[in-house]
Amino acid sequence: MTGPFDYFVVFAEMRTGSNFLESNLNAFDGIECHGEAFNPHFIGYPNKTELLGLTQAERDEEPARLIGAIKGQSQGIGGFRFFHDHDPRVLDHALDDPRCAKIILTRNPVDSYVSWKIAQATGQWKLTNVKRRRDAPIAFDPGEFETHVATLQAFQVFLLNRLQATGQTAFYVAYEDLQSLEVMNGLARYLGCEARLGALDASLKPQNPEPLESKVSNFKEMEHALAGRDPYNVTRTPNFEPRRGAAVPGFVSAARAPLLYMPIRSGPEAEVRAWLAALDQVREETLPTKLNQKALRQWMRRKPGHRRFTVLRHPVARAHAAFCEKILIKGPGCYRDIRRTLRNFHKLPIPGTVPDEGYDLAAHKAAFVAFLEFLKANLAGQTAIRVDAHWCTQAAAVEGMAQFGAPDMILREDEMPGYLAALARQVGYAKPPAPPKVAPQAPFALVDIYDDGIEDLARTVYQRDYVLFGFGAWR
């Protein structure tokens, strides 16, 4: 092997300066960039019919063939530009290959959006002669801009996460860096090229060098729209939870109906299972469960028109259910080791055995508040105890499900009667049974201890769920 890389890819977007970057890369003796080699609408450059001896049809049939040609036929190290909407098959090939150098080009999204709109209006996407420059003021569209930014950010986050997961790094170039001879020579050094430039390529000219105010017809409206943005993400909900898997073996299918229940632990699982059994008039213990992904996909193929659903529980009620069923009472299903650690190390005020004659309503409230305080630290990654499925955020649980297949319907516990009936009617059950009422937890019901303080604390613990699912106060 000669040099650290066999080929390179420039990850960029329209109007970020990728043409200018390519022209400078091609000015080096030993670097050859082949344009948008995997643009689905052309090969390399508009109006070209082939690249390195391969036609567009041959490239589309097997993209790896063109990558092989770029590696083997380029003058020096070869590469190409790649945008988020180019052939997605190329991404895995390039991102998982440590012998592929990654260059990531970025630009202020407001500038790239305005430049993109001007190029659309004028039809001029590249400028080599300033006398032929076309100009047209554009109107700023807030909704279109939000979509533009979201697309750019999603692709950048995707690239970052994949590089992190594979232990790689990239050479980052900002639009402003393109005018730096030192940065361009540094990029060549990164690619393993020994040549250096004495001056930047001057064939391409900046198309719209004027300030934004002269390029946007509704500049005041744009200022007002951008004032509401949060560039530092100050309003984000911090998330230190570990990512969860799909938990497929816990999914429950109906006996005959094409319905699949994807439970969230400490939710109304018993009630939904009972409803599924009543739907087909079978015993609850006969409902198919503990399926692996292969078996479940086979079930899905056998059940065209199937529906997948899950049921959310209010965060306060769910935390109380987890506390009572998994921590408080030393019965079947209790997490005995975690219970012991919470009592001894985290000083959770619960007796060795519950029920206990000294454990009254006031003690239950104090213990539940202490459990919520523990959850606050636990979900923030500040304890040695695992973030269990029974008290993780419901947002994390749903995200985990989506790794197998997102639910078609996300119901709320207080909406179960109406929406479960509607779900059953969708799959051909004209008169579905009503789900059983949810039984209160023992030894004390949440309604007996609930107050604004508990609500505020739960909202702090489960801020993601309150925000993402729109929960209000429990009652």
Strand runs, count: 11
Helical residue percent band = 25-40%
Uncertain segments are 127-131
User: In percent terms, what proportion of residues is strand?
Assistant: 5-15%
Helix count?
17
Overall mean pLDDT: 90
Question: What distance separates the N and C termini?
Answer: 68 Å
Run of helices and strands: EHEEEHHEHEHHEHHEEHHEHHHHEHHH
Radius of gyration, in Å, reads: 29 Å
What topology, given as strand order, has the largest sheet?
2-5-1-6-7
Based on secondary structure, the structural category is alpha/beta
* Biggest sheet descriptor: 5 strands, parallel
Query: Rough shape?
Result: elongated
Describe this structure in words.
The model is unreliable at 127-131 (pLDDT under 50). Helix content is 40%, strand content 9%. The radius of gyration is 29 Å and the shape is elongated. It is of the alpha/beta class and 475 residues long. The N and C termini lie far apart (68 Å). The strands form 3 sheets. The chain has a 5-stranded parallel sheet, sandwiched between helices. Strands 8-9-10-11 form a 4-stranded mixed sheet, with helices on one face. It has helices spanning 18-25, 56-61, 63-73, 89-95, 109-122, 142-165, 181-190, 219-227, 269-279, 293-302, 315-328, 336-344, 361-379, 394-401, 416-426, 452-461, 463-469; strands spanning 7-11, 31-33, 50-51, 54-55, 77-82, 100-106, 171-174, 252-253, 259-261, 307-312, 409-412. It contains 17 helices and 11 strands.
